Amino acid sequence: MKDFTNQKILTGIKFFVKNTKNVGRTKLFKLLYFWDFLHFKKYGLSITGYQYYSFPFGPVPLELYNQIVDEKLPDEFKQELDIVDDDPTEDDFYNYKKFKVLLKNKKIDFDWLSPIEKKSLELVAEIFKYATAAEMTEITHLHNSPWDKTLKELGMGKPIDYQLAIDDESSLDQDTINSYLTLQKEIFHHGRLQ
């Protein structure tokens, strides 16, 4: 049985690699972050279920990063992706390994995404198609961004609360967001949605 959430994430990663330039460690993590946080801002739910942490180069989905470093990616990912070392040196913070993502199979199965998840994916890819990792890092570090607020309030290496994405432009009220968050936590309670 295929893991539904892993298939969503895999679809997103493949789409980003195929439709944006130079997807390596930092850019991949920022693309996933924007996909999740922009979607959350509009609909009150993340797509991947990842918890992002405040790292020096911006938000990092620590679960995915650890899977890559420990070479314990889900089978679905191993079958479709090649994670290639990009630099033999590592950054000091959490031995932050650099890598590039290559596709073994370029066919993308959008059946795993809802129409609004796909729309969010396409929007993020369009916005950041030519962005460099450094430019994306700069955007995540903007004043009052969720990463910036987390860094100032909690420090480096701390979880970034999805609710920090909510601002005056958000269309959802706090009660709706709280009920969506509760529902999503219940769905993911025993691991990834299957």
Compose a concise summary of this entry.
This protein is of the alpha+beta class and 194 residues long. The chain is built from 8 helices and 4 strands.
Topology summary:
Blueprint: H1 4-19, H2 25-43, E1 52-55, E2 58-61, H3 62-69, H4 75-80, E3 81-91, E4 96-103, H5 115-127, H6 133-140, H7 146-153, H8 174-188
Antiparallel strand pairs: 1-2, 3-4
How would you describe this structure to a colleague?
The protein has 194 residues and is an alpha+beta fold. The chain has one domain (4-188). It contains 8 helices and 4 strands, in the order ααββααββαααα. The strands form 2 sheets. A two-stranded antiparallel sheet has the order 1-2. The protein has a two-stranded antiparallel ribbon with strand order 3-4. A hairpin with a 4-residue loop joins β3 (81-91) and β4. α1 packs parallel to α5, α2 packs across α5 and α2 (25-43) crosses α6. The radius of gyration is 16 Å and the shape is globular. The protein starts with a helix and ends in a 6-residue tail after the last helix.
Class computed from helices, strands and strand pairing = alpha+beta
Beta-strand percent range: 5-15%
The succession of helices and strands, N to C, reads HHEEHHEEHHHH
Number of strands: 4
Largest sheet: 2 strands, antiparallel
Question: Which regions are unreliable across 5 or more consecutive residues at pLDDT < 50?
Answer: 89-94
Shape: globular
Number of domains: 1
Total of DSSP H or I helical runs spanning 4+ residues? 8
Q: Percentage of helical residues? A: 40-55%
Termini distance? 8 Å
Roughly how many Å is the radius of gyration? Answer: 16 Å
Mean pLDDT: 84
- How is the largest sheet built, in terms of strand order? 1-2
